[in-house]
Amino acid sequence: MKRPEDKKIYIAVKSAMTLVFLWSGVFWSGITALNFFINTPEYKKTGAWLLLGSGVILCGLILCWLRLYALQFIFCAAGFAVYIVPVKEMFDHVEGTGAYFKPSFELRYLPMIAVLILSAALFIIRIWLFFARRSEKKNEFYNSPSESILDKHSGE
Length: 156
Known about the structure:
Elements: H1 8-38, H2 44-65, H3 69-97, H4 105-109, H5 112-143, H6 149-154
Helix pairs in contact: 1-2, 1-5, 2-3, 3-5
């Protein structure tokens, strides 16, 4: 059974998720991880966790484009949980040193929260539509005309 095509709003939300992921999950996470691997190997573990979280979120984004909304939300949430730990470590380190970065760490890494929120929104909408359709079918069944018992037995 072929699934119906996505509406324009779904495509717009998925495109927004992809753009945010490209900014935070690919560009800034990639630059940061490379910096950790090349220039500061003592923070290599932080870079690896950052890339792992971004990779899991990428899997969720691919599942989102495949319209597997329940599964994509699980991947996005798990990936974000892994991604946010090294980001928090970096925030704490920068706050402790008083260093200034342009663009700020908030603009580099925290837009990934939008991916999680949009992922959750798509998941919730799909669940709501599922239960609405199920309720509609149930109401249609209960309100449909039925055969009379007399009609059924008179044909015998």
